[in-house]
Amino acid sequence: MAQPPLVSLLIPTFNNGHTVGESIESCLRQTFQDLEILIYDEASKDNTREVIAAYAAKDPRVRVMTSDSNSGPLMAWRKLLHEARGKYCTFVWSDDLILPKFVERLVGVLQQNPKDLLAGCNAYRYYIPADPKAPIPRADLDHPDPTWQWLNEPYETARIKGDTYALGIFAKIYPVTQMCNLFVTQAAREVFDHYINFENPYGFDYSRLAYGNDVAFLSEMGMRSGELVQVGEPLVVARSTPNSLTERLIHTNRWQYWLQYTYAFYAGWSKCRELSQRVPTLVSAAEDRVHFCNLFYAVTNRKWPRFCNPFKALRAVWFILRQDRHIQKQASAQTLERWLQHQS
Fold it and tell me: Based on the domain organization, do 60 and 126 belong to the same domain?
């Protein structure tokens, strides 16, 4: 039997025929070659299956699975995670790209720190045409376009504590997407099922409208790891369209988007209390922001707010002004670590 690959790159697809080919090519062009590219398509109606089958026919590292029914994004991601053969894995979204040294760089970090469960990086971000018939200019991954935005403001490569990393996601210092990390596969499997859905008082269906599952998953992975390395250089290219699901929700119901994410932090961190003595401080910060976001969510949707403690909402504003990179551009892992030490 052939030796399993060291790394699995997991690509879920659904009607992404116009972008998935370039995503696969970015995986095939990795400088680190001991990998598999596992693709799972659920019920695509466009030419996605023809595109992925062509790549599988050309390169034995590409494996394809399909289903004619659509189970929703979380169950599709779970299917990939449990089929992965690599010791390490990550998700590669089918409209995004990874730079040639993504795997080499992050595998190197994990091999240098064998007790770590994940290693991460920053990303570039830019928009592609919303019209699926419009041509998409090919990205030169060897020479990133200087006009590309950074997904997160630049940060230094650093080894940080797991709870500081979780707070860093919350404070927009580190990316929220799984794609910006490489995971130990077995640990990722153990954690993933904790966050397929969340019981919540708002009726949000996290298993179908997947906003927040990622931050809870990343937080627990970080805290289980104890410490981890975040690489400051961008090794991922996150591409989106102006009318993507996320962009539409932000423009039509911005406060649902923020509340759903914030509640996921609160619910996810509440499950991690045994992993760090400082988790209650994180839970309190997330609860404060739930009260803040819930007020605006209720007003915009003409509902009575479920949680409306003005003191907690004001405390959330204070944290945002002092520690969150949405506002405070000097915020860093170091400032968050000092805040955690002071609060705890």
Answer: no
What are the tens digits of pLDDT across the range 164-177?
A: 999 999 999 999 99
Cα separation, 201 vs 266, in Å, equals 13
Number of compact structural domains in the chain: 2
- Cβ–Cβ under 8 Å, residues 120 and 194: no
Domain check: are 82 and 163 in the same one? no
Whole-angstrom Cα distance, residue 13 to residue 48? 8
Q: Which domain holds residue 81?
A: 1-95
Residue 39 tokens read as 């693709």
Query: Are residues 228 and 296 part of one domain?
Result: yes
Lowest mean pLDDT of 109-123, 169-183, 304-318, name the range: 304-318
Count of Cβ atoms closer than 10 Å to residue 157 Cβ: 12
In this structure, the answer to whether residues 101 and 67 fall within a common structural domain is no
Mean pLDDT of the 143-155 span: 95
Q: Does the pLDDT at position 1 exceed 60? A: no
Which one of 64, 79, 95 terminates a domain? 95
> Both tokens of residue 325?
């990179």
From the centroid of its chain, how far is CA 297? 24
How far lies 315's CA from each of 135, 221, 267, 296, 318, in Å?
47, 27, 19, 15, 5
197, 218, 271, 298 from 264: Cα distances, Å: 9, 11, 11, 18
pLDDT at 242 over 90: no
pTM for the whole structure: 0.95
